[in-house]
Amino acid sequence: MQTRRNFIATLGVAALGIASREAMASSEILAPRRKLKRIGLQLYTVRDLMKTDLPGTLSKVAAIGYKEVEFAGYFGRTPVQIRELLRRDGLSSPSTHLPFESLESGWQKQLDDAKGIGHHWATIAWIPEDKRKTLDDWKRHADSFNKAGAQAKAAGMRFAYHNHDFELRSVDGQRPLDILLTSTDPSLVDFEMDLYWVKFGGGDPLDFFNRYPKRFAMVHVKDSSGPPDNRMVDVGQGTIDFRSIFAQSQKAGIKHYFVEHDQPADPIATIRNSYNYLHRLTF
User: Fold this and answer.
1) What proportions of the chain, in percent to the nearest 5, are helix, strand and coil?
2) What secondary structure letter does DSSP report for 105?
3) How many contiguous H segments (helices) and E segments (strands) does the chain have?
4) Distance CA 124, CA 106 (A)
5) CB atoms < 10 A from the CB of 214, how many?
6) What is the DSSP string of 221-243?
7) What pTM was estimated for this model as a whole?
């Protein structure tokens, strides 16, 4: 027979279970799962289509559901023409990729054109191999980024740098990406983290977010098949844990998310698959 003490204990356990479930439900109400509000595309993914039909390609990108695009070349169009095409398809373009050489010649013209289109970030996407041999090279680049960032700020814009994997390879015991992050002024220089290349280079996006909070205004959302070959795959079909990464967006400072695939077999299928995955994703 159940004693009074056992009966009371049973009631207590039941009450704790109810309270626990109510607390969990309350926490979910207070902190609901988030979703990406605007999904972007780095147009390098569809560059071959852009070469032959830039207006039509932008229309296809918009029809899939993308709201933002990041340029990697304008294929002979003027800033006015690009701005009009974006307006036609209801797209915005927060960022554009610009050649490293423009830092040495014509940077102000690049900023003027970018601002005319409506970009907010002027982003350098690559440093030539012959210009990144030593630690001193990287320190000079950091100084150059600060100067370019000051010009961008004076124009009402922002400067950013996009990484590959070579910034994570040790040079005299230091990672170049750490040098750039510690030697650039956060008020002048932002970073666009390519999630695939950070993982490919042996880094951890969350570690960078913890050590350099608010420095990563943008990310390239690119997936990896994982070891041993680490192939690029459609977003959501690989091994990168985007849910955990996006959950730290506020800490990282992320404002824009651009899907990218460097060599897609079918560019339109890839950007559609990637968009559909991200549109459903909660974090």
Assistant:
1) 50, 15, 35
2) S
3) 12, 10
4) 14
5) 13
6) E-EE--TTT--EE-TTSSS--HH
7) 0.89
CATH superfamily name and code, 33-280: Divalent-metal-dependent TIM barrel enzymes (3.20.20.150)
- Cβ(71)–Cβ(54) under 8 Å? no
Alpha carbons 130 and 250: distance in angstroms, whole number? 36
Cα separation values, 83 from 88, 94, 122, 142, Å: 9, 12, 16, 31
**Three-class SS of residue 38?**
coil
Q: Are 98 and 123 in contact (CB under 8 A)?
A: yes
Per-residue pLDDT of the chain (283 residues; tens, 9 = 90+): 445 445 334 434 444 454 444 444 444 455 568 999 999 999 999 999 999 999 999 999 999 999 999 999 999 999 999 999 999 999 999 999 999 999 999 999 999 999 999 999 999 999 999 999 999 999 999 999 999 999 999 999 999 999 999 999 999 999 999 999 999 999 999 999 999 999 999 999 999 999 999 999 999 999 999 999 999 999 999 999 999 999 999 999 999 999 999 999 999 999 999 999 999 999 9
| Partners of 233 in beta bridges | 223
